[in-house]
Design brief:
With 137 residues, this protein is mainly alpha-helical. It has 5 helices and no strands.
């Protein structure tokens, strides 16, 4: 039985919810953009370039898919975040590859061996001079 001045209970079928039909924010897109920017700014570190880059790419793809499906806004933001994360990831991998190739080079191994066997500072300086000479040729 219903009284004219009584409040309706929350189980009534006619109740509307605040914000019903309004798109939710796309936190994935925002996070992808922020992490993509951080990946670009710190690509020279393993954590900055690789870890943040991978997370930015993943979140960007998820955010763009949600936006494409109409579940969230900011599709462009998600794509930009994924691209920036990918660029940071690639730049970081290139830096690591170059560093690994230098550390594995014969010149560096010879320099490292020379420094380990040097007993005085002048001998270490001579090792550095020889290494620089080898690298410039």
């Amino acid at each position: 039985m219903s009284y004219p001045n009584s409040a309706q209970s929350s189980s009534d079928y006619g109740q509307t919810h605040p914000g019903a039909g309004v798109k939710q924010g796309n936190g994935m897109a925002i996070a992808a953009l922020v992490l993509g920017i951080l990946a670009i700014l710190s690509f020279w570190t393993v954590i900055g370039g690789i870890l943040l880059g991978v997370v930015a790419v993943v979140l960007g793809i998820i955010g763009a898919r949600k936006a494409r499906g109409g579940q969230a806004p900011h599709r462009t933001m998600a794509i930009i975040g994924a691209v920036l994360g990918g660029l940071g990831l690639v730049a970081s991998v290139v830096i690591i590859a170059v560093g690994a190739s230098i550390l594995n080079s014969d010149e560096f191994k010879g320099f490292n061996d020379c420094v380990q066997h040097a007993k005085t500072q002048s001998e270490r300086d001579a090792c550095a001079k020889d290494y620089n000479k080898d690298m410039n040729n």
